């Protein structure tokens, strides 16, 4: 799980988050009841609200983890990339480029994002779906963080987006499992990004970023494309594409690692 991506993303969004009626702090159940009213006003059905929030509890482990986070990154690029991009991961990525060649070609044609960038992100975020995508109930995690007053508006927005994921039928409630800030799936989308950029690319009528490789890769491409990524242009530091990747991760060191990994995947 890539904590670097989380801390820079949350730090960038906190000032832009909307204001919600539910007051943070105080009694947790009272907060949940107030938030439930907000959710209903936003169009979430009572069935979804009741099933998701009816018995939700605080998670002290999530709060403890959140307070341990460090909002600076001290490794050099060389130190960081050595821990993230090794021969095994490069070879695995190259095998997946071949296995999913037809799928990746369709995604390239529709979204204009090169396949090696998508596979690099996939590998870094979850070891191509084989690694740890998180084991925590997303609703419990986000309700805990929304109740906490440090970034309450931000996480109330993410909690509402998570309820929308359930209401849309993208994931069942018992399959809405993620990491310590509610990140979901093989490329670790926060719920708001899931709603905004998620794509049903396998045509089964729902956006499944936990199990569907076509949905995972196309949604990742859609996020980058929507933020200005252009096919055929360079993506090294200083380029327009490098800046387009800021929506994925604002840390320069991480975006450089994506580019480094992508180049190795295609033999550069």
TrEMBL record:
Range of residues in the leader sequence: 1-21
UniProt key word Signal: yes
Domain Transglycosylase SLT: 28-235
Gene Ontology annotations of biological process type: peptidoglycan catabolic process
InterPro entries attached to this UniProt entry: Lysozyme-like_dom_sf, MltB-like, MltB_2, SLT_2
Single GO molecular function: peptidoglycan lytic transglycosylase activity
Keywords for this protein: Signal
Protein name: Lytic transglycosylase
Native organism taxonomy: Bacteria, Pseudomonadati, Pseudomonadota, Alphaproteobacteria, Hyphomicrobiales
């Amino acid at each position: 799980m890539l904590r670097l991506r989380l801390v820079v993303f949350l730090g960038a969004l906190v000032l832009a988050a909307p204001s919600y009626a539910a007051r943070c702090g105080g009694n947790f159940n009272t907060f949940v009841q107030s938030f439930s009213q907000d959710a209903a006003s936003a169009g979430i059905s009572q069935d979804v609200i009741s099933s998701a929030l009816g018995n939700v509890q605080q998670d002290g482990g999530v709060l403890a983890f959140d307070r341990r986070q460090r909002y600076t990154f001290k490794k050099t690029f060389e130190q960081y990339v050595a821990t993230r991009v090794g021969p095994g991961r490069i070879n695995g990525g190259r095998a997946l480029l071949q296995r999913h060649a037809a799928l990746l070609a369709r995604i390239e044609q529709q979204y204009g994002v090169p396949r090696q960038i998508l596979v690099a992100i996939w590998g870094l975020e979850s070891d191509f779906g084989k690694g740890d995508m998180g084991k925590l109930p997303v609703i419990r995690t986000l309700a805990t963080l929304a109740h906490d007053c440090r970034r309450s508006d931000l996480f109330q927005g993410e909690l509402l987006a998570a309820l929308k994921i359930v209401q849309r039928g993208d994931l069942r409630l018992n399959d809405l499992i993620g990491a310590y800030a509610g990140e979901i799936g093989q490329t670790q989308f926060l719920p708001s990004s899931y709603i905004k950029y998620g794509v049903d690319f396998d045509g089964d009528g729902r956006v499944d970023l936990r199990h569907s490789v076509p949905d995972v890769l196309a949604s990742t491409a859609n996020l980058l494309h929507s933020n200005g990524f252009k096919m055929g242009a360079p993506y090294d530091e200083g380029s327009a594409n490098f800046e387009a990747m800021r929506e994925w991760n604002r840390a320069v060191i991480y975006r450089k690692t994506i580019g480094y990994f992508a180049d190795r995947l295609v033999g550069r």
